[in-house]
Design a protein that fits this description.
InterPro entries: NAD(P)-bd_dom_sf (IPR036291), Sc_DH/Rdtase_CS (IPR020904), SDR_fam (IPR002347). It comes from Mucilaginibacter mali. This is SDR family oxidoreductase. Pfam families: adh_short_C2. Strands 3-2-1-4-5-6-7 form a seven-stranded parallel sheet, sandwiched between helices. The protein is globular. The protein is α/β, with parallel strands linked by helices. The chain has a single domain, classed as NAD(P)-binding Rossmann-like Domain (Rossmann fold, 3-Layer(aba) Sandwich). The protein is built from eight helices and seven strands.
């Protein structure tokens, strides 16, 4: 269907080598876009682009550095002369090196300030910088689609009970950093949509739910029980929504939050 086609479009994806980043790149490529996969992991992002096909590019980019982001835009403009789609996917989601310390360190009372700052640098500042640099180019062109990846935890508070083990012990807390930063992304989307609406740049949020990725059977069961569809997402479950937001199929949609969470936030 032509309305979903991205043929000839130049699409930039940040955090491209992550679990969902790879799927975003695959979906854009399948719909005809030339994908510019970006990440701080050079070998991984180069390999990802090679796997997608010769017309796609893998570039090193640090979303927290305006110089790095501007350098990637310049390279894209020199080769392609345009940028049409930006997927702000790069994000930090707390991981703790010592599982035995995870519950203690992730508890709000003990949560390290430097961990919060790292999340804000990537999840908020990174989205700001990439939108500023690539979005300004789109506004000058008079067209473009920016898709900010948020989360259900940008809309509702975490249910800490799903992070308990079979013995009822809290093995991990979903920290404040992720809801804080993803909530900010939602309102930043609204700001950009209102700011650039008259420039032909559409800005929307895609809010995914949890993805099954080798978690414990206990966690998968507890998470799935809270969704209306009774399961966690597959990594490919967001590809259709992404293409919808990137393409002319959503031409009259901006400032919106497309929730794809299996019904997690419906009740």
């Amino acid at each position: 269907m032509e309305i979903f086609s991205l043929k000839g479009k130049i699409a930039v994806v940040t955090g491209a080598t992550g679990l969902l980043g790879r799927k975003h790149c695959e979906a854009l490529a399948m719909s005809g876009a030339n994908v510019i996969a970006t990440d701080v992991n050079e070998p991984a992002v180069k390999q990802l682009a090679a796997n997608l096909g010769q017309q796609h590019k893998g570039m090193v980019m640090d979303v927290t550095s305006k110089q790095s982001v501007t350098g990637v835009l310049e390279a894209i403009m020199n080769e392609f002369g345009t940028v049409d789609i930006l997927v702000n996917n790069a994000a930090i989601n707390d991981m703790f090196e010592k599982p035995s310390m995870a519950a203690e360190l992730s508890a709000f009372e003990n949560y390290p300030l430097d961990a919060l700052q790292k999340s804000m640098d990537v999840n908020i500042t990174g989205v700001f910088l990439c939108s500023q640099v690539f979005g300004t180019r789109m506004a000058r062109q008079g067209r473009g689609s920016i898709i900010n990846i948020a989360s259900t935890y940008g809309m509702v508070g975490p249910d800490q009970s799903i992070y308990k083990n079979e013995a009822g012990e809290q093995v991990f807390y979903k920290s404040a950093a992720y809801p804080i930063t993803k909530g900010a992304v939602l309102n930043f989307t609204r700001f950009l949509a209102s700011y650039w609406g008259n420039k032909g740049v559409r800005v929307n949020t895609l809010s995914p739910g949890g993805v099954e990725n080798e978690q414990s059977t206990q966690f998968i069961g507890q998470y799935s029980a809270k969704t209306l569809l009774g399961r966690m997402a597959n990594p490919s479950d967001y590809q259709g929504a992404l293409i919808f937001l990137a393409s002319d199929a959503s031409a009259y949609m901006t400032g919106a939050n497309l929730v794809v969470d299996g019904g997690w936030t419906a009740i």
